[in-house]
Structure formats: C-alpha cells, structure tokens
Amino acid sequence: MTDALALYRSLVLIRRFEETILAEYRRGAFSGTTHTYTGQEANAVGVISNLQPNDIVVSNHRCHGHFLAYGGDPRALFGELMGRATGVCGGRGGSQHLHWRNFYSNGILGSTLPLATGIALAEKMQGRQTITVVFAGDGALGEGSIYEAFNFASLWSAPLLIVIENNQIAQTTPITLGLAGSIAGRLAAFGIPTRELDSSDVLEISSTAQTLITDVRQWQRPQALILNTARFGPHSKSDDTRPAEMVDELRRTRDPLTLHGTRLEAAARQTVDAEVEALVRSAFEQALIDPPAGGAI
Amino acid sequence: MTSVLDALNHGLLRALTDDPRVVLLGEDILDPYGGAFKVTRGLSTAFPQRVLTTPVSEAGMTGLAAGMALRGLRPVVEIMFGDFSTLAVDPLVNTAAKLRWMYNEQVSVPLVVRTPMGGRRGYGPTHSQSIEKLFLGVPGLRVVAASHFGDPGELLYRAILRQDDPLVFIEHKLLYGLQVIDAAAASDFEIERTGSAELFPAYRLTVRGAPPPTLTLAAYGYMAELARQALVRLAYERELFAELIVLTQLAPLDAAPILESVSRTSRLLTAEEGSLSAGWGAEVLARCSESLGNRLAAAGRVAAVETPIPAAAGLERSTLPEVDDILRAAEKIGAHPHV
Lengths: 297, 339
Hints:
heterodimer; A: Rossmann fold; two-stranded antiparallel ribbon; 47% helix; globular; B: alpha/beta; Rossmann fold; 7-stranded mixed β-sheet; 6-stranded mixed β-sheet; 21% strand
C-alpha cells in the first residue's frame, strides 16, 4: 500500500468507526457518553503517522481518532465503549480513558497538558530518545493548568509537541465567546515556536507535523501546531446546536476523506473503503459478543 | 536526639541517594534557602540535577509529577503550605489517584506530595489550615501523616520508595522543631507499635505503671503530641487512665488498632486540628460504631472551631484545639472509673 493510500485507510477507519458509534448508540449497543472525531480525522492521522514506535501520545476526551491512528485495536475500543472485559481498559475507563502501549487519554480538559509535559521530561531525564505529542482542543484553552504546563514545558525544555485542534466550538460555545486574543499569541507568550494550519488535508498536516516532530526530537524543546479544523458531529451524541446548513457547509468543504480521496485511483480507494467497512463491522460484531466486564449484565 | 525536620530531611536525602529515579519538585527548595521550612536544605547541592525549583504552579507541578511517575520516575512534590494543596486537587484526584485503576492496572503512579499543614504560628486564614480531610476517602489516594513518634524520616522514605501509589504526606509546622520520640526516648509513658500495618505503622502510648485504661484517645500528626500531654495529665492530675493510638496512615483507614483499643476501653475520643464536620474523627467514630455496637459506651471528637483560622494569637488559640480541650472532652465522656 502506498503512503497516500495508507493515510486514506486511517482516515476511513476513524470515520467508519465513529459513524458506527453514533448509529449504534441510537440502537442501544453502547451506554455512557462518547465524543466523536468525525471531520477532524486528518489531524490525528497527519500527526501520529510521523511518530516512531516508542513515542508517546497523550489525548483528551475526543480520543477515538487519536487511538485508532496510533494503531489501537477497533475491537478493543468498541469493547471499551460497550463495557466488555476485552475493552482497552477492561471496561473501567470507557470512551475517554484509554491506555495502550504509549497512548494515554483522560477526560479532564487541560489536565493532560501538565501530565504530558511531565511524561516528556521523564523520558528526557532517563535518556530515552522519545518525543511526546499532546492533543488538546480550543475548549481546553480556558483551563489555567494549560498555561502552567506551557510555562514548564518551555522553561524546562520538554521534548513535547503540543497540538491544538481548534474546531471553533467548545461543546456548544463558539470560540468567539470563549477565547480572547489568539491561540498563537498564547503560545508565543511562553516562547514556544508555533505553526498554524487552516486545513483538512492530511498531506499538508503530515508534512508540517513531520517538520515539527523532527525539530522537537533534534532540539529537545517544545513546539506547537495549531490545527484549525471542523467537527462534523455533535460534541457528544446529540448536542449540536449549530445550524444544519453550517455543518453541511463544513462537510462539503472540509472533509478530509474527500480532499485526500480524490488523489487516489477510484479502484484503489473503493477497495480500501470496502476493506475498512468490513473490518469495522467485524470489530463491532466481535465486541458485541465479547464477555461483559464484571460478569453478566 | 534528632528533630523531625532533620529526620525528614535525612529521609529525602536517603531516597535521593538510594534511587536515581527520585526527583524533588517544589517552590524555593534550592539552597541556600532550602525550602520555606528547610526540609529540603542541602539536597539541591547534593543532587542539582534532581532537585528542581518550580514556578508558583501547584496544579502544574503536581500534574507534571504525575506524568513523571507514569513514565518511571519517583517524583516528590513539596507544596509550601498545605493550604495551597487545594490547587493540586485536580491532578491528584482526577489524574494521579485514578490512572492505575482506570487504566486497568497497567500503570502505576508512585507520586508523593509532601506538605506542611497546621496553625499556631499566627499565619492567618490561608496559611494555617489542616485540610488533609479533603484528601481522605479519595479512592486510589493514600494519605500519611508524620508525627514525632516512631521514625518520620523512615516514614517518608517508605512513602517514596516502598509503595507505588500516589500519596499525600502530611507534615505539621510545629512538628519540625520537636525531637523524634522512639521507645528508648519515651520517659513517663511507654510507646509500642500496634496493629499489623508494616509500611505506615500505628503506635500505642500508655502511661508507665498505670492501671488498665478506660479511654482510648486517637490522634495523628501534631495533635498526637497534644494528646500525649493530655494522656499524662489525665493520669497524674485526674486519675483518669487512657491510652493513645497514633495513626500514621489516615487513608485508606485501617481502624483496627483503634478498634482493638476501644474494645477494651469502651470509650473513644478523637483529636484533630482540622475543623470538626466530616473530619477524620467522624470516620474513626463511624468505624467504631459500626464494629463495636453498644460496646462503644461513649465517644467524642476534639477539633477546630468551624471558622477560618484567625491571625491574632488570642483568637487563633480559641479556634484551634488545645490540651485543655482534650482534658475537658475526656472528662465529659465520663471515663473516670470512680465517678
């Protein structure tokens, strides 16, 4: 599989996974809460595809895309959301609290920035050649611990890539009601070099991320990447207050699958589509019959 | 003779010496200052790469330390005043305390947060509190309180190197200047370990040569010293014979040493410096009540008045529990065998 096709496959995997989640929630296969990544797939795929095997990913409440791009098992993630013993964390964590290999997520906005900074510093102090990538959304920028972490990361030279996924909306609150100044300005204030993209193109994101990741590894200093992006789905399951036309417009103009898919030969693309469709369906069916965590429901 | 301050300092030095994974973080902890209460004095000179002075960012440094612990280090955070630990509640409660369980036992977070609590120094409402009760009953979080009984330096060493979970280590400002009292140093009372806890033991203090006790005092930290004074005065001045159980691990609570004592004395008096409601004493009393039923004949709690702690010395004295408060409460419980 070519690199371009592999990237496309990752995008489709996340998309089909999240679509399955939302559809099957309505049918009662899942309980609890979830936050889907539909529309933002190119961010996770573009960044994480540039990491080395021992690098570390710290993610947030909207973590399915990051987890799948990292190589996490769709069946284990379905299982985690269904409360199965075979889930990523045996059903203890649920949608927002995942750990597998060097992937960690937590559901408290902002809390992961100090955590990731500490992880990056611990790796550096122990002479490991890893870097740490932390994903946070624009909504998390309201949390004070973020800025304490920016300060620590810069002051103590943490090998950390900070990825801010700015989907312009925090649950239902548009960024215009939540953020003064600019995101880039906030990072600049702490002396953290920052690149900003307004793109849903996985190749563009990947190319920029590759440069930043190389720099973090080489200079052992934090860098930041602001990704202006578009969330197609609701914050959680059914709490989208945006006008339907606005979301439709985003889907028409900002869909990473369309943007990247048009570069591929139709036959190859269809093969990947079908293969991923079958894979996601199989993972879902498997998780459905996996044993429940904590015994019978 | 060793002061509690020196014992804690030595405990940190031993931990840094014995294990290269140990790192200290905190505000103003570098020499020559060595920390606001000097617990870290000399350590940055001995281990400049592993003693890190931080910006004034309790939430940030605690979250950072949780990340360090997750990836193989053994961080020890100093929060300069216990009052400021509220700023570290989120990383402690929602990150450090949860990760091992939430991630299905795939990780551990060996993080120690040390902090001095307590008043009686005139520091006023935001630098005098004993708010450790906020951390009691948080699943995944161990709370240990040093006293001058036993070996506080060893206690701290074990917190850092002999267990693998997030742990809040409570010190008290007035403990620092006290001399450590072990069995050999005890004079008019006897001290022995009680209960089965190995890492963070409980101690039983009894008045030398006294008849069987009819009252159990229970305390920790600096209140254990005030309770010790009360223990001796109750015996010598009022012929009321008690025994004092001093716990070092407050949470998760192993009440067995207290239950064992109360099963003999049938009376319980707890003493703590924090405010009364929903405090440590309430939990201890609930455990005794649940386990002993009507074998618990009488009980009481001594704690701080429920206002902020005033700065003026006279006002502060009337707010925080003193030895006389313990004496009065002991008599009120009616533990006197001849009454």
